[in-house]
Amino acid sequence: MSNDSTVVGSLGDILQSTGFEVLFAENGADAVKIIETDAVNLIILDFRTPFNANDMVFGRSRTLEALSDIDPFLPLLLTHGPTAEAEHATLLTADMVLTHPVEPLAPLEAVDILLVETSNALVQRKAGNLAVIR
Questions:
Q1: Cβ-count burial of 43 within 10 angstroms (0-12 exposed, 13-18 middle, 19+ buried)?
Q2: Are strands 56-57 and 60-61 parallel, antiparallel or unpaired?
Q3: How many domains would you assign to the chain?
Q4: What would the pLDDT profile of 98-123 be if each residue is shown by its tens digit?
Q5: Which of 68, 79, 85, 106 is such that its CA lies 20 to 30 A from the CA of 100?
Q6: Residues near 33 by Cβ (< 8 Å), separated by ≥ 6?
Q7: Which domain holds residue 67?
Q8: Backbone angles phi and psi of 73, in degrees to 5
Q9: CATH no. for residue 44?
């Protein structure tokens, strides 16, 4: 999801060219619907602009909250602009955070790292973060 459809489209093209099936959502509500109905292995959430105050509750993004509530163990790659002020709890929700400008291959490398992680390692890492956040 992004305010810049060119960036998202380019990232989607790169991922599709390497064999990934890519589903796009225009906003958090659409992303939640996709995750509830489709088999998703990883979320890439792109905040290109400063975090929207309407999306924030107690320093956490409602979008991130909704996505992690569906499946707290689903890997999440968060990208955001250099001026976006992400709260500590928001950053902990993500498995990996990239700040724009992002090198062209960095998201692909991040996806590879997150998808290779063993289920055991993922559960141990996420369980520690969930205990801190919740």
A1: buried
A2: antiparallel
A3: 1
A4: 888 888 788 889 998 898 887 777 77
A5: 68
A6: 25
A7: 5-133
A8: -105, 5
A9: 3.40.50.2300
